[in-house]
Amino acid sequence: MAKISRSVFTYQFVFGCNENLYKASFKGRLTEEEIVRIFQALHLCMYNNIAEAIYSCLRCSGIPFSDFKSGISVLTHESIISSTKKLLHAGSSRELQWIGNADFYYGIMDYQKWIGCGWDGCCYAVMKTPRRGRDGYRIVGQSFQYRENSGTEQAYFAIRASKRIGRLYNIDSVAGDPVLPAFGSLDLINLMVHLPEICTARQAAAAVMKQPVV
To answer: Could you give the 3-state DSSP secondary structure of residue 177?
Structure first.
């Protein structure tokens, strides 16, 4: 691998589906273009193959990196729903300490589970980047419930960001009908790529459906 000659950051990619969490991390100093190149590579693989895709992209692109690590965690339904609630409702970034200490964090979750009377689920993309000595967060996510007996569907959607003092606030939010499709194929990687520019529910819905974000 290429030698890193400048001060480095830690990068972590964490993608979840079903009840598995797939992780990859490394040290380096990447440009925005190199980050986009990684996400382009991730578009071509399943979540369980993100570590191989990221490693191959780094090597083939000649991007300097070190300390590459990967792993898989098994999560519970309760922990996934709890983490999603914190992302969508927490008032302070201190409540997101479970994200970890990586300088740059890119997390995706796409989860649904049958719980006996219907479906519970969530999806989100969260980005953490260093900003003026503090972590800067950008979050787009949705939780939902579908009850089979009544045929009712309830969801909560939010676009969130953090201020310098660590306070999390809503840029946009919608309660009621789902903004993002509760079932089916969502392009959450495309959502992640556009995360910094998404300010409305309409833009988020366009991103996950691979439509222009305007």
So the answer is: coil
C-alpha span between 178 and 211 (Å, rounded): 18
Looking at the whole model, is its pTM more than 0.85? yes
Q: Residue 54: what are its φ and ψ, rounded to 5°?
A: -65, -45
198, with CB counted inside 10 A (0-12, 13-18, 19+), is buried
Cβ proximity of 24 and 72 under 8 Å: no
Amino acid identity of residue 19, one-letter, is: E
pLDDT one-digit tens code per residue, 185-195: 899 999 999 99
Q: Is the Cβ–Cβ distance between 174 and 198 less than 8 Å? A: no
**What is the DSSP secondary structure assignment for residue 115, as one 8-state letter?**
-
Element (H, E) at 204: helix 201-208
Q: Where are the domains of the chain?
A: 9-75, 77-214
Q: What letter represents residue 211's amino acid?
A: Q
pLDDT tens for each residue of 93-119: 889 988 989 999 999 999 999 988 889
Please state whether beta strands 9-17 and 65-74 pair in parallel, antiparallel, or not at all (unpaired): unpaired
Tokens linked to 176: 């009621």
